[in-house]
């Protein structure tokens, strides 16, 4: 939201400093012009998220007595930016997942840690920031349950099973039972550093594994995307998947549903195009 308000400040006054944005002086004409510029410059979902930041700031200005209710109502009444975009990223196939896990030797600390990392990213559908925030106390070794601290300070419980659970058990044999972060960094020499991994380190580790497996580039979020798509493909209820991955709305979860694309691909194959050489 800070980045959104800085971008709006740049539009409104040419300087990316939200603290200097005179929100108490904005009216419908200003916010309408800002909306038009956002619609030109950003994808609809991004533009609407930025407008939400602006509306929230104007409501706060009203709460502080800086603007009247009438001014606030007019200023926030601009409509959303319409349109859709195809989702970014890609799905990771089972063959690619197998290639990644084959690189992880559970008999050495770094291999076990990498397998556990891949397991919670894919089987749990976690965001990378959620992964690095996990503590040992958040994992139930008996049931495979993970207590995840998600967006908006919302906790949820997810379960990892079969291979993902086995990978975590292998890592814990190296990690030990010392309280603290669930996943530790591991140095090149194999020494375990007793501190929390960063989300950037997660991205770098996946890039390293993907390079060694000779895979097309993928991001940590692509693991989450693949988890959701594979669950829906397997027939899991969309409401259950939504709760599992921590989406606020089933509409967000539905964006990851690949079944419609596969149906369109099959339908296209029913047509005969009379061209040949």
Number of domains: 2
The CATH C-level class name of the largest domain: Mainly Alpha
CATH-assigned homologous superfamily of the largest domain: Intergrase catalytic core
Mean pLDDT: 92
The description of the largest β-sheet is: 2 strands, antiparallel
CATH topology of the largest domain: hpI Integrase, Chain A
List the helices and strands in order: HHHHHHHEEHHHHHH
The tally of beta strands, per DSSP, is 2
Q: In CATH terms, what is the architecture of the largest domain?
A: Orthogonal Bundle
- Gross morphology is globular
Features:
2 domains, single chain, 13 helices, globular, hpI Integrase, Chain A, mainly alpha, two-stranded antiparallel sheet
Care to describe what's here?
The protein is mainly alpha-helical and 277 residues long. The chain folds into two domains: 2-75, no CATH class; 94-260, hpI Integrase, Chain A (Orthogonal Bundle), CATH 1.10.443. It is 53% helix and 4% strand. It has helices at 2-13, 28-41, 44-63, 69-75, 94-102, 109-123, 128-132, 162-175, 199-212, 220-233, 238-245, 250-254, 259-268, and strands at residues 145-149, 155-159. The chain has a two-stranded antiparallel sheet with strand order 1-2. The longest helix is centred in the N-terminal third of the chain and has 20 residues, at 44-63.
A few lines on this structure:
The chain is mainly alpha-helical and 277 residues long. The chain contains 13 helices and 2 strands; from the N terminus they run αααααααββαααααα. The chain folds into 2 domains: 2-75, no CATH class; 94-260, Intergrase catalytic core (hpI Integrase, Chain A).
């Amino acid at each position: 939201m800070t980045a959104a308000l800085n971008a709006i400040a740049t539009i409104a006054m040419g300087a990316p400093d939200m603290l200097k944005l005179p929100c108490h002086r904005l009216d419908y004409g200003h916010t309408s012009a800002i909306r038009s510029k956002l619609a030109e410059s950003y994808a609809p979902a991004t533009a609407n998220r930025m407008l939400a930041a602006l509306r929230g700031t104007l409501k706060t200005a009203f709460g502080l007595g800086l603007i009247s209710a009438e001014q606030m109502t007019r200023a926030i009444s601009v409509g959303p930016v319409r349109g859709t975009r195809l989702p970014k990223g890609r799905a990771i196939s089972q063959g690619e997942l197998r290639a990644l896990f084959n690189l992880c030797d559970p008999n050495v600390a770094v291999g076990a840690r990498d397998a556990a990392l891949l397991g919670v990213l894919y089987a749990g559908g976690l965001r990378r920031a959620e992964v690095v925030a996990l503590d040992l106390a958040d994992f139930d070794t008996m049931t495979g349950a993970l207590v995840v601290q998600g967006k908006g300070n919302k906790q949820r419980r997810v379960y990892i099973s079969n291979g993902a659970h086995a990978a975590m058990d292998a890592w814990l044999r190296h990690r030990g039972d010392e309280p603290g972060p669930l996943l530790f960094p591991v140095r090149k020499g194999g020494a375990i550093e007793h501190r929390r991994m960063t989300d950037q380190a997660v991205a770098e580790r996946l890039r390293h594994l993907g390079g060694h497996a000779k895979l097309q580039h993928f991001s940590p979020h692509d693991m989450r995307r693949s988890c959701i798509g594979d669950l829906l493909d397997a027939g899991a209820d969309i409401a259950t998947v939504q709760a599992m991955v921590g989406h606020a709305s089933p509409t967000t979860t539905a964006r990851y549903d690949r079944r419609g694309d596969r149906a369109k691909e099959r339908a296209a194959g029913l047509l005969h195009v009379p061209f040949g050489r």
